[in-house]
Records
---
Amino acid sequence: MVFTPEMSGLLDRDRKRAADQLAVEEEDISLAAASDAARMHDIWVHLGSLALRREQGSDRLVNRGFVIDSEGEIRARYDKLHLFDVDLDTGESWRESSVYDAGDAARVVETPAGALGLSICYDLRFPDLYRALSDAGATILSIPAAFTVPTGKAHWHVLLRARAIESAAFVVAAAQSGTHEDGRATYGHSLVIDPWGKVLLDMEDVVGVGFADIDTDCVEEVRRRIPVLDHRRPIPPPERIR
């Protein structure tokens, strides 16, 4: 199975320049190319995400990921739930909500590699999503991203390993890397992590294709050793004591 990063078709902060390249799902050339390639090479693809117009003629966008099967058919779609609206110490300011509409549902899709839970980039910081995905049967969590360099250096590895450990699931995190045409720099370090938190692949800042073999029996073994999913309980609202 092939995994690609967030914004696989277009990554550009210049909205005026990007506007001419944006299309609705049915007309997007990157999605069509990925479907054709999956069918031609008989392989499943998780297209990490694309920037798409919500509807024809609309200025509102969605950040949408796709799981495509080996016949080139779309098996699942996922719109990013959590939008990145922050001001960083570096002076960078991001307001995804000014352009993008957030998704309204989580997704788990059956694949030959296992039940795949879908998320995108900033979702990584919200563990409740991954609890919901693993409760729904996900044994692999896909977290495509275009992390900034400052936040990547500080949080990327530790958050991804935490998501793998607390869910006792594999994590596959394909990430944009390098300096882009619009001047932004992304952190890279595409990772594959096993359910015990061991890093199986770290591509560092390399641009290209990385490979990792996963043993799907590892999920059952880790969940037997530390059955965190079985021990989860509903958490009532905390009593605040003054």
Note: The chain has a mean pLDDT of 94.
---
Amino acid sequence: MDEQTNNRAAENEIEWLAERFEANRDHLRAVAYRMLGSSTEADDAVQEAWLRLNRADTSAIANLGGWLTTVLARVCLDMLRSRASRREDPLDALVVEPIAKGADATDPESQALMADSVGLALLVVLDTLNPAERLAFVLHDLFDMPFDEIAPIVGRSPTAARQLASRARRRVRGGAPEPDADLTGQRAIVDAFLAAARGGDFSALLAMLDPDVVVQADPAAVSAGAATGVRGAEAVAHQFAGRARVARPALVDGVPGAVWAPGGRPRVVFTFTISDDKITAIEILADPGRLAQLDLAIHDD
């Protein structure tokens, strides 16, 4: 009977921890995604936090939410450092999804999403930061963690952690180029890009791409064979040369882009970020739910 009682008590403890963890899951995933820029890696980090919680002595944890955030941050820091040592980029880095219509702006999670809803531009700049800078900026500026809690995670003093975030903040504010406002000029660049891609004109593609251009694709596009996390003008030019034969110019939410729409039904959308007459980012979207939310106007060839 004593053994049964102990087993039941252990089961109750696991159930209680699982309930508390699930209550924190959305916040943890939001933190992990902004630190890692990868949906898959964010899920892996959250799962690792759960495993560490199961191995921990929870009787000594006064603030479970804070403890989980700290553990998750250390997991993400290790992942970022490992990625940097291998000089790898995440394979499925995604653009930050917009807040669902009707979201409560007073909800802390919604506020965090609103503060971080600048999308691909922010993720691209965050990837230029070293792991400690990225962690300090994300935890403090996006999730309001105090520097005295960030400091032991990055192995620095609170003052040094503050300096890390400050350096990262300057990079974020100055590192994301302003997109061009000239829609006519943007359309001309997109049209020229599609023509060069169809014709396999590598030199022409290279001339239109920013040296640090990045291509990102959503999971549906990756499943269909699209590459993601591709960086650099030469790599992107190689990716598109001889391709995009069926893509047609279009306005995507009022901005020049391209659409593959067999039978008039949009299946893949390409969006372009253009700055100083150079393409700085390309997004490939194929998720039906996201495509349904876009305002698309396909041009006649």
Note: Residues 87-119 have pLDDT under 50 and may be disordered.
